[in-house]
Amino acid sequence: MQKPPPQSHLNLLEEYVEAKMSVDTTPERATAIAHMKEFGLPEFIELTGINAGDYGVYRIAGSGVTLRFSAAETDPDLPPNAKVSLAALEKRLSLQFPCTPEQFYDWHEATRSTNGVSDFTLAEGFLETLLATGTLSPAHLGKVRSSAQIIAAFRMDPDDHKNQQWWDARMRNAKRYGLKDARASTGRAKLQSQWNPTLVAAWLIDNGHLDRTAVLRAMQKHFPDVETDLLP
To bridge 204 with a disulfide, which of 65, 116, 144, 209 should be the other Cys (CB 3.0-4.6 Å)? Predict the structure, then answer.
């Protein structure tokens, strides 16, 4: 029996767009999943809106998510270094069920392309909960930055002196102003305090100091390597 012709790239793209529009899990449910010790395929479907089966280059099943191709099945004439790269990609983009919320997060990060966009849209509330509950390790939040870098990135006043004063008051009284959790280390002598840009950004938005658009613009300009999907 003749096999049906493979799907065109256009067909795959149409499926992809349709699937990305199908995430309708409520923030409350996504939050509940983020609090689970482990979860599997049903919760994966709820979070992404993608059902079991083939999805682009992925294959989704009860055992987890894998690539539709395997490094072991590639052209035998492929150079060894290319096979190694494919094997590494295959491992990085594989997710086994059941998984912890943090394992899912690590896998989801690996699905991001060079422009930072993942192949899978997530229901609102999941990543935000992981950040708020401290489930994510500091590495997930990106490299810390000095007080001077934070002050220069998030300007609260166009005047340099007034901007410095605004930040000095809050950084010196981080606990009082609710900024303590964003401080990775306290400065000593000539060493400045170190801050997590993601947590500082979230604090600015939550407290109405800057709107989300302004914060994202500052993050993209000054800290382009830092994750922004976690921001409220």
Answer: 209
How far apart (Å, rounded) are the C-alpha atoms in residues 104 and 95?
7
Q: How would you list the strands of the sheet with 95-96, edge to edge?
A: 53-55, 58-61, 64-67, 95-96
Q: What is the DSSP string of 97-162?
A: SSB-HHHHHHHHHHTB-TTS-BSS---TTHHHHHHHHT-S-GGGG---EEHHHHHHHS-SSSSHHH
Omega within 30 of 0 (cis) for the link into 98: yes
Task: Give the domain ranges of the chain.
Answer: 9-136, 141-222
Residues 187-202 pLDDT 10s: 776 788 888 888 899 8
Tokens of 164: 């410095």
The arrangement of strands across the sheet holding 183-185 comes to 145-146, 194-195, 183-185
- Please give the structure tokens belonging to residue 74: 């590639």
CA–CA dist 7, 180 (Å, integer): 52
